[in-house]
Amino acid sequence: MVKAKSTSFTLKAGLAKMLKGGVIMDVVTPAQANIAEQAGAVAVMALERVPADIRSTGGVARMSDPAMIKKIMAAVTIPVMAKVRIGHLVEAQILQAIGIDYIDESEVLTPADPNAHINKTKFAAPFVCGARNLGEALRRLHEGAAMIRSKGEAGTGNIVEAVRHIKTITEEIKSLQSLKLAGLKKIAKDYRVPVELVQQVRILGRLPVVNFAAGGIATPADAALCMQLGVDGVFVGSGIFKSSNPAKRAKAIVQAVTHYQDARLLAKVSEHLGEPMTGIAMDDLTVSMAKRGW
Amino acid sequence: MVQPVGVLALQGDFAEHGAVLQQLGCQVQLVRTVAEAKTIAGIIIPGGESTAIGKLLKSTGLNRWIQQAARRGLPVYGTCAGAIVIAKQVDSPYTLRLIDITVKRNAYGRQLDSFTAPLQSTLFPNLAGVFIRAPKITRLGPKVKTLAWYKQQPVLVETDRILAGCFHPELTKQFLVHRYFIEHTRRFARQK
What we know:
- The complex is a heterodimer.
- In chain A, helix 2 packs parallel to helix 12 and helix 8 packs across helix 9.
- By secondary structure, chain A is an alpha/beta fold.
- Chain A starts with 6 loop residues before the first helix and ends in a 25-residue tail after the last helix.
- By secondary structure, chain B is an alpha/beta fold.
- Chain B has one domain: Class I glutamine amidotransferase (GATase) domain (Rossmann fold), CATH 3.40.50.880.
- Chain B is 30% helix and 29% strand.
- Chain B is built from six helices and twelve strands.
- In chain B, the strands form three sheets. In chain B, strands 2-1-3-4-12-11-10 form a seven-stranded mixed beta sheet.
- In chain B, strand 1, helix 1 and strand 2 form a beta-alpha-beta unit.
- Chain B is globular, with a radius of gyration of 15 Å.
- The mean pLDDT of chain B is 96.
- Chains A and B meet through helix 1 and helix 12 of A and helix 1 and helix 3 of B.
């Protein structure tokens, strides 16, 4: 229905479909990538620093060293993703040139463009982008994103913002149902997207691409909560390798995403995981990453 | 009673396969546990990440259940990751060894090498293949029949109701392979 029906979009959105029901894990070394793959991750996000460390270090956060990303690509057989700054099309060109499987245009890094995101239709590599609400999600799709994730608040170990974003998108999709064409046109204008895209979402009753949870997931229960709220899978950033037993926690979160409705199994996999990452309450937050992006 | 067709729902695009089966008039049973598999007349193992699916097959005990059920004649259709999971030989420790083929994972390359292309098949006219980080079938056992080719390479093969495909018909509007598989499940249900 929307322009994004080309063969190449089928392949971009298709890979995201293969990741459904799975866990994508942030890793900073090939050894961590191997632990993630062994635990059953469906993909890894290659980074120099996990979001919790980006927060504590401060300064400008940029795309990681391509040499480091390539080492992780060589270490695992699952897809490898990497992050670029919002609007930084050259960082995206570089990642595409090294053959990355998915590009995350991410608010976790310091934005490079104060007004615009990357025109993702110009790339053969697929993009995932964060969203706090339906308007953001649809703007990213209109720009060519093939997968959406909640923004949450990365690096906090606090699930509250991811829950807010997931529920907001769900409620905004639901509220389309009662609208006639005039109402849809007004929404499309507010969202700055074509009305056809809004109509498509209304017919589907969901986003037309895969939608993952991200930002603040620290426990198997957090992951299962997001799944019960209707997402297709989860990203875990700092939550695994900032905990005391990453391999065990990673495995438990994989189980929790598959069996998200089975409370007995969730109880079992939640036992003896050791210390989770130290969290940050939203009132103590100095930088909101989620507010980055336009 | 109409027996449902199962879709292994541990990880991957199981919802897409389920939607195709429903459109073709099947009852669908998503299978995450052995208990959920009891009544099915066949099972589709979807696309996804074969390492993740393999581990979850083991932790749920569905690996042994599917192997035993396949021995009793349960039809199985593996697409992409699913084909890897059911192959006899592959560079992965998690295979169910249901069909005598050798499969090479990610054989076409990374995501940027994913592609769509028309396939050659006498059974399924005008079949199109969506290949996403797809595996290649590099060896066929003596009893294995090829149902579709891409550039002379077998991409859909079969023995005794076990079907393995490298591409994703569930991402297209062509349900020919699913229809073919449903026929297997109906025959199996009648025999029981």
